[in-house]
Amino acid sequence: MVEKKKTSTFSKVTKVVVWLMLIAIIGSTLVTVISTFR
User: Fold this and answer.
1) What pLDDT, on the 0 to 100 scale, is given for residue 31?
2) Transmembrane ranges (predicted)?
């Protein structure tokens, strides 16, 4: 039970990190596109 809980928490953290990375990549790409068009 304890191990299962730990893995679920770990997967949650991994999901959050992946989402943050995706948002950061998309954000930097948008900034680059906007600065290029200016």
Assistant:
1) 96
2) 16-37
